Amino acid sequence: MQLGLFAVLVILSWTDLAGGSKVAKGKRQRRISTEVSQGCAKGCELCSEFNGCLKCSPKLFILLERNDIRQIGICLPSCPPGYYDARNPDMNKCIKCKIENCDACFSQNFCTKCKEGLYLHKGRCYPDCPSGYSAANGTMECSSPAHCEMSEWSSWGPCSKKKKLCGFRKGTEERARRVLNAPTGDRSGCPPAREVRRCTVQKSLCPEGPKRRKDEQGKRENGNGNHNRKEAKEARSGSRRRKGQQQQQQQQRGTVLPLTLAGPD
């Protein structure tokens, strides 16, 4: 009897402890959730106590920095050396260059500026220029023996696809530079004067322009012209058939000769 009462008391005590832990856990979760988006740094729209910023303002870039086993998000107006900016309708991000010893890149696998003391050649960084190449005009960019003098890169152009600026989400953008001086006169050995990279934009519908309306009107006019020509052709063929039938009827009737009566001698 006493053992039974003791077992009942143990079960009731365990139930109370379990219920209390659930309540405490619920309170802790509510406390953490209320801390989200409170006390965020400037430019941050959504943040967490443990992971820093989770979403930045539209014009800023989010950079994830590793701290032991955690990633801390911070918002920056531009990406730091060793990262390139990736614009996205949802959120702009700073993505780390995968090229070793790279200070600036426009994609993960193509460097545009190496760390100090290294030479840039075809998107990679080297301690010395490869055989047959040398630094152009005192710069740290390897070029062919032509020693071409290049202008600065232009800014990136608008995101486009098949020469259109609307009606798509993923396209390409490009920038260019000019050959200022090619001593041998042959520009084929100069560094590239055009670069292209992928881009993502908010998809928008293309408005119906006057050219499209003009094309549709031309198609209708061509259709009417073809119909009129067909009717004229059928009328000509019908006229020829009627004329042939009339000639055939005349041939079937034959020519009627008048009779001549002979008088008395």
From TrEMBL:
Note down the stretches annotated as region Disordered: 206-265
Q: Where is the R-spondin Fu-CRD domain?
A: 42-142
**Which stretches does UniProt call biased (Low complexity)?**
245-254
Q: Provide ranges: composition bias, Basic and acidic residues.
A: 209-237
Superkingdom in the source lineage = Eukaryota
What's a single GO BP term from this record? Answer: Wnt signaling pathway
Residue ranges of coiled coil: none
Q: Which family does it belong to?
A: Belongs to the R-spondin family.
Q: What is this protein called?
A: R-spondin 1
Gene designation = RSPO1
